[in-house]
Write a structure and sequence with these properties.
The chain is an all-alpha fold and 92 residues long. The chain is 83% helix and 0% strand. It is found in: Plastid, Chloroplast.
Length: 92
């Protein structure tokens, strides 16, 4: 147990941030999976929907980096993976 007032505040703060980061990270993962699924189901009819989903996912990844939830290289890697998936789908 914490002995000082500042240690108690620090514990409260870290717990609050942990909960916030966990929920935001979960939301980003869900959005990422939705984007992967929409790319997998890509057709000419759904092209605009897929592009919108891709832009939305990129935005959420960038915001997660800005909030300190993800490292910038992880977000860049995830965006590159999505772009690679879309490119493979378009070439087939």
């Amino acid at each position: 147990m914490a002995n000082t007032k500042s240690a108690l505040k620090s514990i409260k703060k870290s717990t609050r941030n942990y909960i916030r980061n966990r929920s935001n990270k979960s939301a980003v993962r869900t959005i990422y999976k939705r984007c992967v699924n929409s790319i997998a189901e890509y057709t000419d009819d759904t092209a605009s929907k897929v592009q919108h989903q891709l832009n939305f996912t990129y935005s959420k990844l960038d915001k997660a980096v800005k909030q300190g939830i993800y490292h910038k290289n992880k977000a860049a890697r995830k965006k590159a993976q999505l772009a690679r998936l879309l490119k493979l789908k378009l070439n087939n």
